[in-house]
Design goal:
Elements (H helix, E strand, L loop, with lengths): L1 E7 L2 H8 L2 H8 L3 E7 L12 E2 L9 E2 L1 H12 L5 E12 L2 H8 L4 E5 L5 E2 L1 H7 L2 E4 L9 H12 L32 E2 L2 E2 L9 H19 L1 H12 L1
Parallel strand pairs: 1-2, 1-6, 4-7, 5-6, 5-8
Antiparallel strand pairs: 3-4, 9-10
Helix pairs in contact: 1-6, 3-5, 4-6, 7-8
The structure holds S-adenosylmethionine (SAM).
Length: about 230
């Protein structure tokens, strides 16, 4: 079973998303295991303090290293191998390729969610194997990136998606963006579903979809096609 551990000061954010839909089913079917740890449980003072003022001054608070050290050490005390990931806008940019790479992990993935102005630098030095950014923007915390990683890896694992949610032909999975999708009615506000999709001719439909995926990728993300060329040359 693929395992994730998440350290956060807002476990409810994780619980809410993981308690619905495909993630919920994957957990119930024991296809993934997600353990969420509240960082405040690893503090020693009565206020359960996880942050403090920055040395050198400046605005905002910094996440303390000691509770994180205690949490990671306690989680790892079971002896199970883990890849420790800190969520950070300064990390490696996450994409489908990274998701596919991580989906092959045999270790559990331990995700550390930051908050405030950031995390004491010594956390990086002492505890972290790699840092991941979900994109070039700054969020208020690492919980959404943690969920992005859990969701995108989980849907690559065998059995997590049913046939109706298959990811074989999804954007990026064949190096291109996805083709346009339609469902009933066949005409809406004067807009008709392309004739070929109603033809029942599977060969023609597949060709049309490939063409549309190519057109769409050329128009919106030509950089992906360079990737396809490089991959097929290597
Ligand atoms: N001052 C930090 C910096 O500029 O690198 C940003 C701190 S941010 C307000 C608080 C936390 O949100 C970070 O420690 C990180 O865990 C998370 N975070 C924010 N944006 C993120 C992103 N694009 N990818 C991953 N984590 C992010």
């Amino acid at each position: 079973m693929f395992g994730f551990d998440v350290i956060t000061i807002f476990p409810g954010i994780l619980d809410a998303y993981l308690g619905e839909s495909i993630m919920k089913r994957a957990i119930e079917k024991n296809l993934i295991d997600v353990k969420v740890y509240n960082l405040r449980d690893y503090t020693t003072d009565k206020h359960k303090t996880v942050d403090d003022y920055p040395y050198g001054g400046g605005s905002g608070m910094v996440m303390k290293v000691e509770p994180l050290y205690k949490a990671v050490t306690a989680i790892k005390s079971d002896g199970v191998q883990r890849l420790t990931v800190m969520l950070s806008p300064q990390g490696r940019t996450y994409n489908q390729g990274v998701a596919e790479e991580m989906a092959k992990e045999t270790r559990r993935i331990l995700l550390i969610c930051g908050r405030y102005e950031g995390i004491d630098e010594r956390t990086r030095e002492l505890l972290v194997d790699t840092e991941i950014s979900t994109g070039d923007y700054v969020l208020t915390g690492g919980e959404l990136p943690a969920l992005v990683i859990i969701d995108s890896i989980s849907r690559l694992l065998p059995g997590v998606l049913g046939d109706e949610e298959s990811n074989k032909e999804e954007s990026f999975s064949w190096g291109m963006l996805d083709y346009p999708h339609y469902t009933r009615p066949s005409e809406f506000m004067g807009k008709k579903v392309p004739e070929v999709l109603l033809s029942g001719n599977h060969k023609l439909i597949m060709e049309w979809r490939k063409q549309e995926a190519l057109k769409r990728t050329l128009a919106r993300r030509p950089d992906l096609l360079e990737g396809v060329e490089h991959r097929s040359n290597s």
